[in-house]
Specification:
Layout (H helix, E strand, L loop, with lengths): L1 H29 L4 E6 L14 E7 L3 H14 L4 E3 L13 E7 L8 H11 E12 L5 H14 L10 H6 L4 E9 L9 E8 L1
Parallel strand pairs: 1-2, 1-4, 2-3, 4-5
Antiparallel strand pairs: 5-7, 6-7
């Protein structure tokens, strides 16, 4: 019931942040997507309108059936062509070196095992392939980080961990971070504002 409600409300809850600048963040990030592209945790499809013509194949992985239903509807509305696959990022059903680009936006906060997820992302990327990420993360301010720790059980009801040091996990994986920018999710609760946007390569 909780997952169905979360999927139903996701776009509405996100609208303020999207209109205040998050949509532009997505557009700028995805401008670097090209070739065969895999988006993990595609959700309701908020990234779909931003993929450039350089993307020759688009595969959307989404494990939640309620999100997949809304994702399919958005695809039809936009008239885009993409493959929707039911799978988790920790166990991607694709051969090694299948994709030129892998995209994750607000996904690594919710995967059960970040290390395994990042290993799978690296595995399916072609040599020198790009991993484009936009994630809300643990604050560098000690007081806010403690607040994130305290509120994590509440966020966990929808599968989110707002206190993860995701950048450190990416840097400790086999991926090489080439660019990263720290910012804030506009109009988000303070505990969910710290954000990173960047690109890593296999």
């Amino acid at each position: 019931m909780m997952r169905r409600l979360f999927a139903a409300l996701y776009d509405t809850v996100s609208r303020g942040s999207e209109e205040a600048g998050l949509r532009q963040e997505r557009k700028q990030l995805l401008a670097d997507a090209e070739g065969a592209t895999l988006e993990i945790g595609a959700g309701t499809g908020l990234n779909l309108e931003h993929y450039p013509e350089a993307v020759t194949r688009l595969v959307l992985v989404e494990p939640d059936r309620h999100m997949r239903r809304r994702l399919g509807r958005r695809l039809e509305t936009l008239g885009r062509t993409a493959e929707i696959v039911e799978a988790s990022v920790e166990d991607l059903p694709f051969p090694d070196a299948s994709f030129d680009t892998v995209v994750a936006t607000y996904v690594l906060c919710s995967v059960p095992d970040q290390e395994r997820a990042l290993a799978e992302i690296a595995r399916v990327l072609k040599p020198s392939g790009r991993f484009l990420f936009l994630e809300h993360v643990r604050s560098g301010e000690a007081k806010l980080a403690k607040r994130q720790d305290r509120i994590r059980p509440l966020y966990n009801l929808v599968g989110c961990n707002p206190n993860r040091d995701t950048l450190a996990r990416i840097e400790s994986s086999t991926l090489t971070v080439e660019s990263v920018r720290h910012g804030e999710v506009p109009k988000a609760p303070k505990v969910g504002r710290p954000m990173i946007v960047g690109m890593a390569r296999r």
